[in-house]
Design brief:
295 residues; mainly alpha; 2 strands; globular
Length: 295
Amino acid sequence: MKPLRALLGYLAVVFLGAAAVAPWVYLTVQHYAPGSGIAHQPFHRYVNRCLLVLALAGIWPLVLALGLKSWAEIGWKRSVPWWREARAGLFFGFVSLSLAAVAALACGGHQWRADHTAVEWAKHLGNAVGSAVLVSVLEELLFRGAVFSALRRGGSFAVAAAVSAGIYALVHFFERPPEPTQVDAATGFLMLGRMLHGFMDPLAVFPGLLTLALAGGLLAWARERTGALWFGMGLHAGWIFWLKSYGFLTVEAPTATGALWGSAKLYDGWAALIVLSLVSIPLALRWRAQPPLAP
């Protein structure tokens, strides 16, 4: 029960803390830099960024609260050839979702966009690569490094993988609510509640929730079989790059079946779920003859 209490406390601090802090960050920016690009960002992004900062700052305290006393115990193992594992994971991640994107283009589900300027391409690539690196490292440290490792120490792989994958999938379903008419101390909590409305619409949740849960399961399996986070970080980074690039590179065809091919998010279509299911086969074969290392 201790890992569960520590995890619930961490999530409460991150979510409630972000809701409490975001209005003051927003008002400070509006006061001291009213004409800046940051000042013109929608308020929900302030909540998201506060969530990210608090989540990052709280990882090590969470690791200690979960009873994990070293970087090696959460999978940050220098003895493992990390560059080879990360490179292999990046290859699998990049190729897997690129297949889903190519299938959508080939079958008329999405259409190629060729109207971007060189400046837009440069900006997009910088954002996509930066997000791929930052998000993959942060989320793997949290979900597979801290949560999975702590649960795995005291229980089975199935339980640890299911819980870590379930939380990982659920936190990706925030809505983008409309801008508030005014911002005060309570606005962050109201905005957080509206962002959580995405869970109330089954058509918005499925099949994306299944795809993300499967992705979380594959990342947990990578952590289990390699004994480290490197392969999972590479795999995750390849996926993030495509999730950031799909809406930039393509647009949904007017006659497309949205449930099959998904929106600009890519992972919310059945095609992405099918592709990830197929990718799990070579991953299983890759580690078939390799005994699991200590998590």
